[in-house]
Amino acid sequence: MSGLADQQAALVAALTSGGAVPAGIDGARFEAARVALLRKRAGEVARQWPMLAAGHGTRWKLTFAEWAATRPSQGSLRDGWDLARDLAARDALPAVAAVELAEREVAWHYNGRNAPSSRRGPALRATGGAVAVQLSGRVWTLRRPS
Amino acid sequence: MADTPPPYGVGIGWRPEIAGFVEGLPGLRFAEVVAESVHAHGELPPGLQVLLDRGVTVVPHGVRLSLGGAEPVDPERVTHFAAVAERLDAPLVSEHIAFVRAGGVEAGHLLPLPRTREAVDAVVANVRRVREQIPVPIALEPIAALFDWPDEELTEAQFIGEILDRSGALLLLDIANVYANARNRGTDPLELLDQLPLDRVAYVHVAGGAEHQGLYHDTHTDAVPQPVLDLVGELSARQRPPALMLERDGDYPPAAALTAELDAIARASGYPSVT
Amino acid sequence: MNDTWGISGPTFLTYFITAGLAIAILAAVHRKALFRGTRGATVDNLGPQQVAYLNGGDRLAVYSALGGLRAAGAIGTGSGRTLVQSGPLPAGVTPLDSAIYNAAARGVRTRDLQGDQWVASALEQLRDGLERNGLAVSAGQMREARLWIIGGLALIVVGVARVIAGANNDKPVLFMVFATIGAFVLTLTLLRSRRWATDVANRSMRDFRYKHNYLAPSNSPSYATYGATGAAMGVALYGGAALYTMDPAFAAEAEVQRIAATGGATGGSSGGDAGSGSSCSSSSSCGGGSSCGGGGGCGG
């Protein structure tokens, strides 16, 4: 079955990582599918990360699509998390999204490779100008960037 | 499914976002839930439990088994699917004729299979693996695709027919997909309807879509267009399916608009209104 | 060997603890009677703002109205965290809705709404009706319940005095220190417990909330489908967090606090609802609620 397996792997790579469109497939139609998929992923991430999406307003789908074009989905929770961290590192995280990220950083342990798991101990994190603290499961925001 | 099961009429895809609306449909007897969104153990969402208590048939609809993948289906996913089917006491389950991952990468999307005998073999083998764990019938749904593979050996009707024949599966016919594919390929949707084994249709999906840059996208987030409703009429005139359901997945409109779409499906199929 | 104030340590401690327990029990019994509410009263026929008041007082009632007005497209946010009118006032609104809508025309900030005289008087009207029906605890009843704080304060004063006197008298005071701390905690508990709903209302609210579970933020309810009343009821039952689900940008601009509705199952801490991803984050077999979702192609 290696023929089918190779065909499928090449198609998924082209769709999610910017690989070459497999020979014989209509380029324009493939591109339409690729863009539609990115838009759909943006919508799913917006559900998990409402403030991240809201902070970008009408530019959200574009911002996400640019970032996600060469990154296969790790699930909407992790995709949004990775993007928020990238933006924070570039000082480009909107203020409302910084609060959302900080609150999750203190509530969850996420190493960027595995699924996030809830923290057992207390935590204090500052990111993108927001500061949050978590104590036995309760989260407080100490500072909101303006 | 034995002899002639009683028809369910018009149904709807249950989604948490519109659970309150679905619960309020007095005549509802058929609904579908995304299998991956239901926990195998633990409490069911209250809105879904209410439907079950009322005797509404709820069918689990898998979206991530990847039955068309070249590799065997993930046994863990099949176990979950089976557990959900049992929890819902479902008379059947459904999945897609598609693949969603390959080479260890998730596509996050239902992708079309090349219409080849090798692909038929892959689907049939995976359906067999699923049926080993799930005692109830499985219905397979052909998808809408924006692009086709080169060098295909079978027509769409042959491809679907062969898979159903060899796997013993039922057909979940998405009438909006029939419309989308025909429109994007420039073919006649009625021709496909006439070639499909309509006596094997377990139920039917009806969904909305929109055109972007000359291509019709099966979005599930737009209104059901009139040509799709017309196809419901054509299908019902040939062989009325036991159930037809509205499939909406986002940008949910006001309740009145959903009600109107359900009624339009009822009118087109000749079933009583459920609203 | 002189007993401080002529009473032995163990005897005094016994009296002190007995007095503390008596205050706690009497206060509890008194509260039970005060907050019972009218038998047979139910929340089933209440509007969203009334439900909101019972769950979170004036502030949640205001938030609930904001949710309804926002869902109807009547209000938005302007510069400097102010509210603005963004559309006509829908038909069939409550006095609180109109008061907030009018305040929006004057560019009042969300956090100053309760201070607006028209809003305040609409809230008073709302409150009065609920108190008459035996669903809301009145300010008078709350004051009466808090009278027991005086007993607690008296205990603290006596306890502190005894500790000082005992220490000066070279007596062991450790147990007395603990007992005084106990009195302090008791007083704080009496002071802090603010409530709006009577016991009858709370019981009725439990069923009501279960029936309206579809409005819980964890379901990402479609407020477009449920309409303005559904949006207002979502906030009433599930707190400020529901406004963030409905319209995150508006809620953030309007500086809506994520206050929880009391007795709710929202687990409303001041912040994160990261829990929304919890049940699915680790499981391989959890793909979100829809077979498709979002704009763009779906294909299923």
UniProtKB/TrEMBL annotation, chain A:
**Location of the SCO6045-like C-terminal domain:** 5-88
Matching entries from InterPro entries are given as:
SCO6045-like_C (IPR058711)
Q: What is this protein called?
A: SCO6045-like C-terminal domain-containing protein
Automatic annotation (TrEMBL), chain B:
The organism sits in which domain of life?
Answer: Bacteria
Listed NCBIfam families: PRK05409.1
Q: What is the lineage of its organism?
A: Bacteria, Bacillati, Actinomycetota, Actinomycetes, Micromonosporales
Q: Which SUPFAM superfamilies match?
A: Xylose isomerase-like
Write down a Pfam family by its short name.
Answer: MbnB_TglH_ChrH
State the InterPro entries in the record. Answer: MbnB/TglH/ChrH, Xyl_isomerase-like_sf
- Kindly provide the name given to this protein in its UniProt entry: DUF692 domain-containing protein
Q: Which organism is it from?
A: Paractinoplanes lichenicola
From TrEMBL, chain C:
Chain intervals for the UniProt region annotation (Disordered): 281-300
Task: Name the keywords, alphabetized.
Answer: Membrane, Transmembrane, Transmembrane helix
Query: Transmembrane: is it a keyword of this entry?
Result: yes
- Known InterPro entries for this protein? Ser/Gly_Cys_C_dom
Keyword Ubl conjugation assigned: no
Composition skew (Gly residues), residue ranges: 286-300
Residue stretches spanning the membrane: 12-29, 147-167, 173-191
The record's listing under NCBIfam families reads: near_uncomplex
**Name by which UniProt lists this protein:** TIGR04222 domain-containing membrane protein
Q: Which organism is it from?
A: Paractinoplanes lichenicola
